[in-house]
Design goal:
- The structure is a single chain.
- The protein has 243 residues and is mainly alpha-helical.
- The chain has a single domain, classed as Four Helix Bundle (Hemerythrin (Met), subunit A), CATH 1.20.120.
- It has 10 helices and 2 strands.
- Strands 1-2 form a two-stranded antiparallel ribbon.
- The longest helix is centred in the C-terminal third of the chain and has 29 residues.
Length: 243
């Protein structure tokens, strides 16, 4: 009986997932070495890979239950564990390290719960998950969680002087991940054809700013995303009061 064979192309999405997970694990290692810029860059790279693996799986018709579970485990490492350890090493490992670690655990557990809920809703027949996310997605939560690191690396704010605020913020991001707040999904965003060129121009400007002022640009991106979340929460509450 001949063994079933897989095309090498069908393994590419899983290899990309593993590459992203290795980046997240390496971020933890470089945090221990106090190479915070490299650690933050590796987590960002893991987020980029997380966007690519699903797209590749659909393009190559290589989606599988194994790949979906592997992606979830990799996300927990890269976006649940690594960001918390990086924030701890950068801003919370001083006098209040014990209390700071508690908030890191809260962030990691919330990331785990977020991914578990996503895994359950992934097979929902109504397709609601494709229109919007429920709570902040794990990669976006990781980017938000790293805001104190971005602020410090950009030299805009010395976050090491306010470890309690950093710890509370990190836990707050964790709670956003497990909240019921509907958050935007790029898959559901539709733009008019006439506006497509402006989106491409804006993206080009964003990439250029990333090269010029990486950490300050990421600070602005996080603040814009937080503002969008605040607006969505306000609109949801207003609808609830008006019902």
């Amino acid at each position: 009986m001949a063994r079933d064979r897989l095309s090498l192309l069908q393994l590419v999405p899983n290899l990309v997932t593993i590459l992203g997970m290795c980046a997240g694990l390496s971020a933890i290692r470089f945090t221990f070495d106090e190479r915070y810029e490299l650690a933050a860059a590796l987590i960002i790279f893991a987020a980029v890979m997380d966007g690519f693996d699903g797209m590749l799986a659909r393009t190559l018709n290589a989606t599988s239950s194994f790949g979906a579970e592997l992606d979830s485990f990799a996300d927990f490492v890269s976006f649940g564990v690594a960001p918390g350890i990086l924030v701890f090493g950068y801003a919370l490992s001083g006098p209040m390290a014990g209390l700071g670690w508690v908030f890191v655990l809260v962030f990691a557990v919330c990331g785990c719960l977020r991914l578990a809920r996503f895994n359950i809703s992934r097979g929902a027949p109504d397709g609601a998950a494709t229109r919007h996310f429920v709570g902040v997605p794990a990669p976006a939560g990781a980017m938000l969680g790293l805001l104190p690191v971005y602020l410090g690396l950009s030299e805009l704010v010395d976050v090491t002087r306010a470890p309690l605020l950093v710890a509370l913020y990190l836990a707050g991001v964790g709670l956003l991940m497990i909240s019921r707040l509907p958050t935007p999904s790029l898959k559901a965003v539709r733009i008019a054809r006439d506006n497509a060129i402006w989106v491409m121009v804006a993206m080009s400007a964003f990439v250029g700013l990333l090269f010029l002022r990486t950490w300050a640009t990421l600070v602005v991106a996080d603040l814009v995303y937080l503002a969008v979340l605040g607006w969505l929460a306000f609109r949801r509450r207003r609808r609830g009061l008006g019902a």
